[in-house]
Amino acid sequence: MTEMVNGETQATQAGGTAPGSVPGQASGQAGASRRGLTIERIFTTPGTHPYDDVTWERRDVVMTNWRDGSVIFEQKGVEFPSFWSVNAANIVTTKYFRGAVGTEQREWSLRQLIDRVVHTYRDAGVRHGYFATPADAEIFEHELTHALLHQVFSFNSPVWFNVGTNAPQQVSACFILAVDDTMDSILNWYREEGLIFKGGSGAGLNLSRIRSSKELLSSGGTASGPVSFMRGADASAGTIKSGGATRRAAKMVILDVDHPDIAEFIATKAREEEKIRVLRDAGFDMDLGGSDISSVQYQNANNSVRVTDEFMRAVESGGQFGLRSRTTGEVIENIDARELFTSMAKAAWECADPGIQYDGTINDWHTCPESGRITASNPCSEYMHLDNSSCNLASLNLLKFLRDDGTFDAAQFAKVVELVITAMDISICFADFPTEPIGDTTRKFRQLGIGYANLGALLMATGHGYDSEGGRVLAASITSLMTGTAYKRSAELAGVVGPYEGFAQNASAHTRVMRKHAAANDAIRSMDEMDRSILALATKTWDECLRVGAENGWRNSQASVLAPTGTIGLMMDCDTTGIEPDLALVKFKKLVGGGSMQIVNQTVPRALAKLGYHEEQIEAIVEHIAEHGHVIDAPGLRPEHYEVFDCAMGARAIKAMGHVHMMAAVQPFISGAISKTVNLPESATISEIEEVYLQGWKLGLKALAVYRDNCKVGQPLSASKSGSDEATATASAPATQIEYRPIRKRLPKVRDSKTVSFAVGGAEGYMTSAAFPDGGVGEIFLKMSKQGSTLAGMMDAFSIAVSIGLQYGVPLETYVQKFTNMRFDPAGMTDDPDVRMAASIMDYIFRRLALDHMAPEERAALGIYSAEERARQLETGSYFADDEDDDVDVEAMAQSAPIETVDISTGGASATWEAPGSTTELIEAQQGRTADAPLCLTCGTKMRAAGSCYVCEGCGSTSGCS
């Protein structure tokens, strides 16, 4: 893409800036021997503007709250290309268009938005000497416009919010702050975080300089310790997030493992999560954003422990580890390293915090150690660099580089990386920053964060399993090419406008890290022709990077990160975000004119074609996925191809170490780190989390977070507050402790019962259910196999357990919710006309019990109907003969149900059905799993994971960087 002109100034060859130049600005204005970049075309043609090559259409954007149907945003007649999805257009309109809605100043077309940003970048590039000629500047503008228009890449959200407006030109999404052991510094920390939150970004910092609660103050008193000061910052973030225009506050708090208060820090959020559960069970509204959640502390930050190699070796050996004074550096307490490590895993098991950061690896890959250590990260853990610094991000859509023949266009990918990294560096020339120290550090070190999205979709489309060696090699090759190209362009930019100001001091260290990247690239072992061609170009690129860098230095101290890509991933119509695999094979899609539909991920047919299946087979497999949500037993699909369709959730969820190994494959080719949460099932143990943390260190990761399903309360709740008056009445007598216990209600000696014989998938059995006098079921017996067999014994034990639960007051409805949709063999056809298909014996049994003992409106909420009811619906359009007399509109429930069998998770004794409002809710409905994602504070939609943050598919709001 670039033709460099020979001849650098003497100052450049020495690693400094040109004589007379201003640090951080284009020294090409002062050095006559320097010329700007010659830009080659990638997508565009001379004489044709990118806007002229697409079909534009007008749309009305109306956003409603999924919960109550109220309109939260409306703008009619907005203009977008015809190939942009409804969701992408909605998010851009609501999030990024500037100007008051309903005024002439309001942006109404994607052209206006792109022009506002691109023209600012072009003008700054011209002003600072980046382009050789005006023609090169025009090509740069057209190529950047085309790439944004066609969703090839996107800048991070602050660029779209601010660039080209009257607001401060803040372009960075990620900030790292610093705090010292003084009250002035601590209070300034609160102030700086508030300014960053107000601007729609997030910040992280390390509190380890603050002396511990076990040390003395100069006055002779005992210090408060960092955990106490976290309360004030947490309250500040909780207040500011409610008034922010773009997203809730995002922050990271880090403490070194040798800090004397480390045990208290580890336990903070686990204790608060326990408090949340107690308050929830007492009837308080503890949902995220609920009226009572603000009484709980430390909920506005991600917590991470910064561990050293010394500590991790002590964990391995079972040795002691010293906690050190913050003022003298002396060891003031020795602890059992393995015991502390287990407490970290236990807390993460309980509430997903703290995460872990590996200090040794982080600083071993640090390009600027002479300017200070890396002590902290941004909220999502992908940006790690000097204190009081920032990073602007941009992400490429990998699926855009997959040709129709199934090969990856590595050459075009590299050219786009060069284009984007050039634009990102230009942005630092005109950017504004929330504080002067952050602005000063960023201009001196020019940290950038290019990354990508849609890796999971790309792997699936090319027939690679996410947790496979071939998938990891392909991901590593692409990542190596991306970062190698970014640094090569950075070296070329250094020859045009000078290296970053801090390069001279850190030249040796920066070069060492470049060589480490190149050596890691050489260690990749190719698996097939696709990654072989990418790897060959990456190897050539790293060679050129080292050669040009030796001559010019580098323009940027950091080049790449892997961010969550939440909002911008939706803007680019990506199926997957960041480094994540696909969430599930079945998605939720908005329709033009309102409404939504359930679809199978469009990457699936592409993957099946790549694997050699013909059109009829693909249609049958897709139909199976649409019905079941997974590929198991799909007609004609070979079992060896199942792994290609493994997802983060579902029947074939990727194992925890599959996520860790993918991170380890690409980390050596990332300047910063990776925003990723390793998801574990609810059944995961503390020792499994310990193993994940230990392997993350051994495999060379920089940071890691885990999330165990259902470990947090931050999800929709329906706890009743009916007992609050009684609680108030007894509060005045603190000495009296009242303990409530369930009472077992036994069946009478003679009771009515019903016996049903059944066959599921060829397996036969009998079920007897006995009822209380009021009609409620109170006992079941299951008979399968011969007396004395293992199966018969297990069924007897299960029957006793369920029967005792029913007699202690557990609603039958709760058992139906938990056991319907459970999938295992034997499964398939049954001999029961009311339940023609069953996913397992358990699925059949509890559907039969629901039909026999639950009221029609209760069953309707769960999507369970008899054969007679289904026949009536086909004839009359109604499942029930007297719907108009029912208090509950069961017909409306039935009509809106996306599939016949829907599993609902509720917090109360009775279920209420709600149509899914997001992909996360759709997956829950299909697979009977309660996701822990919070509700969006803007529109009420359930969010989905994006890296270590969450993104709302309804309005694009995120809980961190984007």
UniProtKB/TrEMBL annotation:
Cofactor(s) named in the record: adenosylcob(III)alamin
Ribonucleotide reductase large subunit C-terminal domain boundaries: 172-707
Any Pfam family the entry gives: Ribonuc_red_2_N
Domain of life per record: Bacteria
Record's catalysed reaction(s): a 2'-deoxyribonucleoside 5'-diphosphate + [thioredoxin]-disulfide + H2O = a ribonucleoside 5'-diphosphate + [thioredoxin]-dithiol
Protein function: Catalyzes the reduction of ribonucleotides to deoxyribonucleotides. May function to provide a pool of deoxyribonucleotide precursors for DNA repair during oxygen limitation and/or for immediate growth after restoration of oxygen.
Name of the protein this chain belongs to: Vitamin B12-dependent ribonucleotide reductase
Keyword Oxidoreductase recorded: yes
Segments forming a coiled coil: none
Residue ranges constituting the Ribonucleotide reductase class II vitamin B12-dependent N-terminal domain according to the UniProt record: 61-151
Family matches, as Gene3D superfamilies: 3.20.70.20
Start and end residues of each stretch annotated as Disordered: 1-33
CDD domains: RNR_II_dimer
InterPro entries: RdRp_reductase_class-2, RNR_2_N, RNR_lg_C, RNR_NrdJ/NrdZ, TSCPD_dom
NCBIfam families the UniProt entry points to: NrdJ_Z (TIGR02504), PRK06556.1 (NF005122)
Positions of the TSCPD domain: 749-851
Keywords: Cobalamin, Cobalt, Disulfide bond, DNA synthesis, Nucleotide-binding, Oxidoreductase
Family: Belongs to the ribonucleoside diphosphate reductase class-2 family.
Assigned EC number: 1.17.4.1
Organism in which the protein naturally occurs: Sporichthya brevicatena
